[in-house]
Amino acid sequence: MYIPIKQNRIFKMRKAYLVGGISFIIVLILSLILLYTSFLDISYTSISTDKPGNPDQRKVVYFGVVSRYSPHLLYEGYQPLMDYLSRETAYQFRLRLSHTYQETIEQLNSGEVSAAFLGTYIYILNRDNSDLQCILKPLNESGEPFFHSVVVSLQNSGVNKIEDLKGKRLALPSPHSYSANWLFNNTGLKKADMDSIYHFDFHNTVIYEILKGDFDAGIVKDRVAREFEDKGIRIIHRSDSIPASPIVIHKRTKPEIALAISEALLKIDIKQDEYKKLVLNWDPEFRYGFMTAAHQDYPNEMGAQR
């Protein structure tokens, strides 16, 4: 079929524009996916506090943390504490995240990290065979070194007490967390009593799954539950006091590093305005200061049952 030269040129130009437009959209989508993925996956990200033109030559110390929250939330709440330690000590502190609780244990064993924010349960299970030593524990809003595991449900659900959990769908955090093991070790409730049980990577995910209606109840740390009490979540049962999640070192960690961490964190006094402002953007678990931790603070029987 004959097409006039002018129309043929217009047709070719439109085709070129269309192809170019589609290519641009594809590149844009791929770029956004890559950016989103890199934003979420910061498991091995370390943030340098070096200043351009004035590189910091101090020794770098890596600080691990179990995967109790999503990488984004961990970075938001824990990195300011790293910045504080870098200012107050002779070292550069960098955060090292992990995909699982057990991976943080492996990082301590291999020397990849010199210290770590560990969970109470996994610390008790691994301290002897991994040569771990607790040095500090955070204080709660009452100035005590404890937390509570809590059972939560939707405010308008029929789950009002422990007995109501029978036959229900239960969401739990990592099986290596204390909260995931507390219920069946301390309340008389059995796993066989439940309709279903599912473990999620993060405490916050447990809450989201309940809000979505996919689960009838869940168990998380009290500090997480409090963040969602005005969003439809209520606490229906609270555990006895549990020793606060410790900061630990490996026994091969140099004593001067452990001492630097302890001295910097123990001098935080939130009664003073200087420190009250300092901790405002820290994870809520660390906003009330720290105290020295000892082996006997974490009895073996707390990790004896599975």
How would you briefly describe this protein structure?
This protein is an alpha/beta fold and 306 residues long. 37% of the residues lie in helices and 19% in strands. It folds into 3 domains: 1-40; 60-145 and 244-303, 3-Layer(aba) Sandwich (D-Maltodextrin-Binding Protein, domain 2); 149-240, Periplasmic binding protein-like II (D-Maltodextrin-Binding Protein, domain 2, 3-Layer(aba) Sandwich).
Properties at a glance:
single chain, alpha/beta, D-Maltodextrin-Binding Protein, domain 2, 6-stranded mixed β-sheet, 13 strands
Could you characterize what this model shows?
This protein is 37% helix and 19% strand. The protein has 306 residues and is an alpha/beta fold. It has 3 domains: 1-40; 60-145 and 244-303, 3-Layer(aba) Sandwich (D-Maltodextrin-Binding Protein, domain 2); 149-240, D-Maltodextrin-Binding Protein, domain 2. The strands form 3 sheets. A 6-stranded mixed beta sheet has the order 2-1-3-12-4-13, with helices on both faces. The chain has a 5-stranded mixed beta sheet with strand order 8-7-9-6-10. Strands 5-11 form a two-stranded antiparallel sheet. Strand 7 (169-172), helix 5 (178-186) and strand 8 form a beta-alpha-beta unit.
List the SSEs and their pairings:
Layout (H helix, E strand, L loop, with lengths): L4 H36 L19 E6 L5 H18 L3 E5 L4 H10 L4 E3 L2 H7 L5 E7 L7 E2 L1 E6 L14 E4 L5 H9 L9 E4 L3 H10 L4 E5 H6 L5 E6 L3 E2 L3 E4 L4 H12 L6 H6 L11 E3 L14
Parallel strand pairs: 1-2, 1-3, 7-8, 7-9
Antiparallel strand pairs: 3-12, 4-12, 4-13, 5-11, 6-9, 6-10
